[in-house]
Write a structure and sequence with these properties.
Elements: H1 2-7, H2 11-15, H3 18-26, H4 31-50, H5 63-79, E1 86-88, H6 105-115, E2 123-124, E3 129-130, H7 138-145, E4 149-153, H8 156-168, E5 172-176, E6 182-183, E7 187-188, H9 189-196, E8 199-203, H10 211-217, E9 222-228, H11 244-252, E10 258-264, H12 282-287, E11 292-296, E12 307-311, H13 313-321, H14 323-327, H15 332-346, H16 350-354, H17 356-361, H18 365-382, E13 386-395, E14 407-416, H19 421-429, E15 434-436, E16 438-440, E17 443-447, H20 456-466
Parallel strand pairs: 1-15, 5-8, 5-9, 9-10, 10-11
Antiparallel strand pairs: 2-3, 4-12, 6-7, 11-12, 13-14, 14-17, 16-17
Helix pairs in contact: 4-5, 6-15, 7-15, 8-9, 18-20
Length: about 475
C-alpha cells in the first residue's frame, strides 16, 4: 500500500506536465481551477489506496496517465451545460419535468433580442423618465382576458399568495373542501393560505358543496370567497359544486366581499370547440363578473413560466402597490416571451399553428401517424438493429391540466436486437440531445405528438448512435 502512495506525484509536478496545459486550453480553464480538479483526483486515488479498493492493474498505464485521463473526463463532464434541450418522445405536451410549454419562434426571437440588448423595462421613452414594468404588457393582458386590469408575477402559486396576502391577510377566506388541492412539489392551497396570513374557512364536503354552505359561513370577518379550479384531478360520481355565476351573485349581495377564482392552468383558447376537455376560457370567466382571477403562463397558455392576475382595476392597483409585488416580479425575458405569446393569440387562428402547445394538443391523429411511419421507414432503411411497429395510442396533456382527457395518437414501438428495453431507453437518454421516451409493454415508445418535424432527423441520429 505504501509503495502505491509513494507513486502519487506532487501537484506542482503535474502542473508542469504537457497534458495539464492541453486540458487547460481545451476547456478554457484557469490554472487554479484545473489544479483543484487534479487535487481532487489525487485525493480520490489516495483514499481508494488506503481502503484497498485498487488493484495493481490500476497502475499499469502509469499513475500520471491515470490521473490526467480521469481529470479530463471530470472536467469534460463539469463543463457541459446543466440545462439542456431534450427531445420529448413521451407525448405529454406540458411535461413538468421537461420544462412544460415550448415557446413560439416569435417569442424566442423576442427574448433573445431583449436579452442581448438594453431595453425599456422600466423606462418611458416618450417622456424620458422612469416607468413601471407592470405597464409593458398590461394592455395585451386586458385585451385577451377582457379584464379591467392585469399584472404578472413569477408563477401562479405566487399569484395565489399575493392575492391572499394583499386582499385577505388576517381575515377569513371561504373555500370548498373539495377544492383544497395540492399542486406539484407538495404545495397545498391550504399551506399557501396559511403562509399568506389569510384564515381558511372550509365549507362543504370533499365531494359535495352547496351554495348554502357558503352563505352560512359568511360573517363580519369574511373577506373573500375563493374558488379553486381543480385542473389537476377529477372527482366523479356523487358530486356537486357551485358554479362561478352563483358565487358572483352571492358576492354581490355582500359589502366588501371579494370573489377570487384560481383557474390554475388558465386557457385563452377554447379547446372545447375542438372536442378537447372542458377547461374554462379565461375571458368567459371574467365575463361572469368575478373580482379577480389568476392562472399560469406556461401551461395551456403556451408561454413562459408566469402567474397572471387579472380582474377589477381597483383590486389590481392595490396588488401592484403591495410589497410582495416587487418580491414576486418577473424579469425582462419573461415579459418579452409573454408579450409575443399574447400578440399571437390576438392574431386569430394563427395562434393554433404558431404556438407549440396549441398545435401539439390539437394535432390530428392522421398527421401524427404519417410522421411516425416516415420515421420508421427511414430508421429501418438505415439499420437492421431495430424492430419498429406503428400503433394507435393516447397522449396526455400533462402539467396538471385536463387529467381526464386522452388524446388519440400514434406511437412507434421500438425494440433492439441486442439491448433490453431499459438499456435502450437509458442509451437514448445519453444521446445529445437527450431523447426521453415512454416505456410500455416492455417496449420503448415514441409518441410523435410532441416530436417537432425538425426534430425527426436528430431522433434518427440518436437511434443510430445507440447502434
Amino acid at each position: 500500500m505504501k509503495q502505491y502512495l509513494r507513486q502519487l506525484p506532487p501537484v506542482h509536478e503535474l502542473q508542469k506536465a504537457e497534458q495539464f496545459e492541453t486540458i487547460r486550453t481545451t476547456y478554457h480553464m484557469t490554472k487554479d481551477r484545473l489544479t483543484r480538479f487534479v487535487q481532487l483526483e489525487i485525493s480520490d486515488i489516495r483514499e481508494r489506496i488506503l481502503n484497498d479498493n485498487l488493484t495493481e492493474d490500476f497502475f499499469s498505464k502509469g499513475i500520471e496517465e491515470v490521473i490526467f485521463t480521469n481529470v479530463k473526463s471530470n472536467v469534460s463532464q463539469w463543463t457541459k451545460d446543466r440545462l439542456t434541450r431534450v427531445i420529448n418522445g413521451t407525448g405529454t405536451v406540458l411535461h413538468t419535468n421537461l420544462g412544460r410549454a415550448r415557446l413560439s419562434e416569435k417569442a424566442v426571437d423576442h427574448v433573445a433580442d431583449v436579452a442581448r440588448n438594453y431595453s425599456n423595462l422600466e423606462y418611458q421613452e416618450v417622456e424620458g423618465k422612469r416607468g413601471s414594468r407592470h405597464d409593458i404588457i398590461e394592455d395585451l393582458l386586458k385585451e385577451v382576458t377582457g379584464a379591467e386590469a392585469a399584472m404578472v408575477v413569477n408563477n401562479n402559486a405566487a399569484a395565489v399568495f399575493l392575492v391572499l396576502s394583499g386582499l385577505a391577510k388576517n381575515q377569513e377566506v371561504i373555500v370548498s373542501r373539495g377544492q383544497l388541492v395540492e399542486i406539484g412539489g407538495s404545495f397545498r392551497i391550504s399551506s399557501i393560505m396559511e403562509e399568506s396570513g389569510a384564515k381558511l374557512v372550509e365549507v362543504g364536503t370533499t365531494n359535495k358543496t352547496h351554495l348554502t354552505d357558503y352563505e352560512h359561513a359568511i360573517n363580519e370577518d369574511t373577506s373573500m370567497i375563493m374558488k379553486v379550479h381543480t385542473s389537476n384531478f377529477m372527482t366523479v360520481g356523487f358530486t356537486e359544486s357551485v358554479d362561478t355565476e352563483d358565487l358572483v351573485a352571492l358576492k354581490e349581495q355582500q359589502d366588501q366581499l371579494v370573489f377570487y377564482e384560481d383557474l390554475g392552468s388558465g386557457s385563452l383558447y377554447n379547446f372545447k370547440e375542438q372536442g378537447i376537455g372542458d377547461e374554462p376560457v379565461v375571458k368567459q370567466v371574467i365575463d361572469t363578473g368575478v373580482d379577480v382571477i389568476s392562472f399560469s403562463g406556461d401551461k395551456l397558455l403556451g408561454g413562459p413560466q408566469a402567474g397572471i392576475i387579472a380582474g377589477k382595476k381597483e383590486i389590481i392597483q392595490k396588488l401592484k402597490k403591495h410589497q410582495l409585488a416587487r418580491v414576486l416580479r418577473v424579469d425582462k425575458m419573461t415579459l418579452a416571451a409573454l408579450e409575443q405569446t399574447l400578440k399571437t393569440y390576438l392574431s386569430g387562428e394563427e395562434a393554433r399553428e404558431e404556438l407549440p402547445t396549441l398545435r401539439d394538443i390539437t394535432r390530428l391523429p392522421e398527421e401524427i401517424r404519417e410522421q411516425a411511419e416516415k420515421f420508421a421507414d427511414e430508421l429501418l432503411s438505415l439499420t437492421s438493429s431495430y424492430h419498429v411497429e406503428i400503433q394507435e395510442s393516447t397522449s396526455q396533456i400533462g402539467g396538471g391540466t385536463m387529467p381526464g382527457v386522452q388524446l388519440p395518437t400514434y406511437i412507434a414501438t421500438v425494440t433492439h436486437n441486442v439491448f433490453s428495453t431499459h438499456e435502450l431507453a437509458s442509451k437514448l437518454r445519453a444521446c445529445s440531445p437527450v431523447i426521453v421516451t415512454r416505456l410500455q409493454d416492455d417496449q420503448v415508445c415514441i409518441d410523435f405528438r410532441t416530436i417537432a418535424e425538425n426534430e425527426t432527423r436528430q431522433l434518427l441520429e440518436g437511434f443510430l448512435q445507440v447502434e
